Amino acid sequence: MPPTRRSFCLAAVLAAGASVIGGARAAPVASPDYRITKVRFFPRPGHAAEMKGGKFVGSLTSATNDFQDLAEITEPPAEGTWTELTVPAGRLRAYRFVKYQARNDVWADAAEIEFYAGDRKLAGVPFGTTGSGEAANDPKRAFDGDTNTFFRGTGGFNQYVGLDLGPGAQVAPPAFSVAQGAYPKAQAVTITSTTPGARILYSVDGQGRPGLDEKGRPVGGGAAWYDNKPIPVAKSAILQAVAVKQGLADSTTAIAAYRIGAGSNTAARERAQFHIGNSLTDTVHPWMETLAASGGHRIRYYRFTIPGAPTDWLWDHPGSGFGESNYAQAFLARAPLTDLITQPFAGHGRSIDNEADYSGRFFDLARAHSPGLQMWLYVQWPASDWSRDNWANGFAD
């Protein structure tokens, strides 16, 4: 039977993303709003006063970095009851990762934590400071709805527990039509996002992350709205893009480096890097990959990180933390590796000898499967007052 005019109309309605109920067209379903408006929490019994000075924060990028303040606990909360904090108007924003960050002299003890967007309690995958091996160290305990259970961190420094709200809470990152790398002639690059209704901000000068200010105006490195036309890249440049949509967390920043012109047709070389460290190590990947691409190199990036962890803790706690946590198996499966980068930790009473010892253990284990492995150290800057910095003076911390 040939299609009728009515069937064509129905197909057009469905293609537009609307539903048809009883012959009438229904409005498209709006995306949920993930802007955090309030936080409720219930202290661990006997530890309420320790929550003063803590804060609730959100990040677009990861469970370990780039957090922005939502609300602070300025007074000791009451024992045995819920406390509610309203997020100030100037901080109303959606995030992919939200957490309670304790002050630095306590263990982040908390019985329950709830994040809300309006009247909707948000759900996600719990995460938290890892490594103690105690039952109370399970982040799910802070989100199980039971005020008789609690989360307890692993020490008195940089302890936290939170939720990954999942990819549905965030705009999909932009994609570039031309892969970053070295090219002998100019390129025309288009940018897309798979999130329906998302708008894209971009910059080509590499000076800061594109974003929006409080009035919705583009900011950061000459950012502008993408108009769906190819962007001409006639000379070497770094292209950055962020996709945004009201009610969702902004996407992570997509970055691509292009090297255009003489000498750019050299075949790209690949390096396979494995990074061992803590939260500072988690900041390495985006800029290192882009820097390598600008010189015609590609990087296969792997990592095993635990926030706040010295190298001996990482060695002794495979299977925890983030990334390729079963490092011994990863050294085999990801071989051949070209580079191993460890981050010595100047804290928790660890000495230079200790960090050198365990960095060397990781190197020897990885080199068994990658004979040409190059060892690198990602080292923190010494204190500005060198007389008080034992590591800068070559002494045990």
Topology:
Elements: H1 5-15, E1 19-21, E2 24-26, E3 38-42, E4 55-59, E5 67-72, E6 83-86, E7 97-101, E8 112-117, E9 120-121, E10 125-128, E11 160-164, E12 175-176, E13 181-183, E14 187-189, E15 191-192, E16 199-203, E17 211-212, E18 218-219, E19 224-225, E20 231-233, E21 237-244, E22 254-260, E23 269-277, H2 284-294, E24 297-305, H3 311-316, E25 322-323, H4 327-333, E26 339-342, H5 352-367, E27 374-377
Parallel strand pairs: 13-22, 23-24, 23-26, 26-27
Antiparallel strand pairs: 1-2, 3-6, 3-8, 4-5, 4-7, 7-11, 8-9, 10-11, 12-15, 14-20, 16-19, 16-21, 17-18, 21-22, 24-25
Please supply descriptive tags for the structure shown above.
13% helix, 5-stranded antiparallel sheet, flat, 5-stranded mixed sheet, 397 residues, 5 helices, alpha+beta
Report Rg. 25 Å
Percent of residues in beta strands: 25-35%
Number of strands: 27
Assembly state (oligomeric): single chain
Mean pLDDT: 84
Distance between the termini: 84 Å
If strands are numbered along the chain, what order do they take across the biggest sheet? 5-4-7-11-10
Net shape: flat
Q: Give me the secondary-structure category.
A: alpha+beta
In which range does the helix fraction lie? 10-25%
Number of helices: 5
The biggest sheet, with number of strands, parallel, antiparallel or mixed sense and barrel status, is: 5 strands, antiparallel
Low-confidence regions: 1-29
